[in-house]
Structures are given as C-alpha cells and as structure tokens.
Automatic annotation (TrEMBL):
It comes from Pseudonocardia kongjuensis. The gene is cbiM. Pfam families: CbiM. This is Cobalt transport protein CbiM. Belongs to the CbiM family. NCBIfam families: cbiM (TIGR00123), PRK08319.1 (NF006184).
Length: 233
C-alpha cells in the first residue's frame, strides 16, 4: 500500500497518477459540498482523516523485508462515501510521505489509487451489500473495513505485478507472489481493523447519534451488532 519512493518505473508512476487524479479532484468537490451542506460534519471528517492516518502509519514487518499496514479507510467510506475518502486518503499519504517516509511522491498516484480510491469503494460497496441483505450496522461496518484493507493490498499487488511481471509466468505469477507475501500479515490485520472500526462506530453511535442519522448511517432500530442503540427515529 505504501509503494516506496522511486520503486515504480516512471511510466507506471505517471500512469497511476493520471488514473487517480480525477478521483481526487472529484473528492475535493465532494468535501466542499459536504461541509457546505453540513458544517457540523467537520469534526467527523477530521476524525475519519485522523483514523486513516494513524492506522495506515502503523508499520508491521512482513516476510522478505516488506511491511504491512492497516488502512483505516473503511470508517470514512461508511460515514462520508468513497469520493470524500479519495481526497482525505490522498492528503494522508502526502503527509506520510513527507513526514514519515512511508510511500513517496513519485508513487503517490499508485498509493492513492489503492488506498484512497479502490479501498473506500470496496468498503462502501460491501457495506451496502450487507445492509441490503438485512445486516445490522456492526456486521456491515466490519465487512467494509475488512474488505477495504484486503482490497487495498490486492490492488497494490496488481500494481507491483504490472510493473514487475514474472519472467516465466508473467503478470499472473507475479501477482500471486506479491499477494501471498502480503496475505501472511494482512489477513489478521484486516480482521483486527474490522473489529476496531466497529468499536469506533459504536462509540460514535453513543456520542453523536444525530450526526450519524443525518449521514444516513443510523437507521430505525439499528444496532452495532450486539445491542440496540437509542437511535430509533
């Protein structure tokens, strides 16, 4: 997810920047619209950004010298929809590249596409699917955060495989190699991230239920997975 500075071939780095840019521009507009329509959402927007920054800044060693991170984008995708997270996630990646040397500026487009675009859309799509199948808030949030995490690293694996195909088996072989390296640490990380995101949402249900209603997250007789909330409007 944090492809290192200068790691991608220049053509690939430029191509991913071009692909990610429209999503980020659209995200900037979505943030402006959201703040104009609901100024009180600024605090939750900041919280979603901080959650993404902190979780994705954690660095857990994987095999062959690589590392894995939670992503933190599932929360913001559920609260504010994927376009907003395209901007927030990209801003997070810029600060991490400049302050923590996680990722880089030349690889920003690729990292933004996997973390800030693909991950949030996977999260929101899976969240909606669980909700439409009758799932309550807790399970839907867990699935969203879990799949956002795994989806981000699946896209990163594909990006690396495109840049460095296996000499014998091509893209497919390289993709399986990169994906298997990440999966050793990423699957348990995704489970942990899902559980943590559910706990955060449960806290938000208790302290700011009105805002969650306005965002369309809380529904009548909604629960966080184990107990009913007070939000029954």
């Amino acid at each position: 997810m944090h492809i290192a500075e200068g790691y991608l071939p220049p053509l690939h780095a430029a191509a991913w920047t071009v692909v990610a840019a429209p999503f980020v521009v659209h995200g900037a507009r979505a943030v402006v619209v959201r703040v104009r329509e609901d100024p009180d959402a600024k605090l939750l927007l900041g919280a979603a950004g901080a959650f993404t920054f902190v979780l994705s800044a954690l660095k857990i060693p994987s095999v062959t010298g690589s590392s894995s991170h939670p992503t933190g984008t599932g929360l913001g995708a559920v609260l504010f929809r994927p376009p907003v997270m395209a901007l927030i996630g990209t801003v997070v990646l810029v600060f991490q590249a400049l302050l923590l040397a996680h990722g880089g500026l030349t690889t920003l487009g690729a990292n933004a596409f996997s973390l800030a675009v693909a991950g949030p859309w996977i999260a929101y799509g899976s969240y909606l699917a669980v909700r439409r199948l009758g799932g309550t808030l807790g399970p839907a949030v867990f699935v969203a955060a879990f799949l956002a995490d795994l989806g981000t690293y699946t896209v990163t694996s594909a990006q690396l495989a495109l840049a460095f195909p296996d000499p014998t088996s091509g893209f497919g072989g390289a993709f399986l190699t990169f994906a298997s390296i990440f999966s050793i640490t990423q699957i348990p990380l995704a489970v942990a991230e899902g559980l943590l995101t559910v706990l955060v949402v449960r806290l938000l249900v208790r302290i700011t239920p009105d805002e969650l209603r306005r965002l369309g997250v809380l529904r009548p007789r909604d629960t966080t997975g184990t107990e009913p909330t007070e939000a029954t409007a």
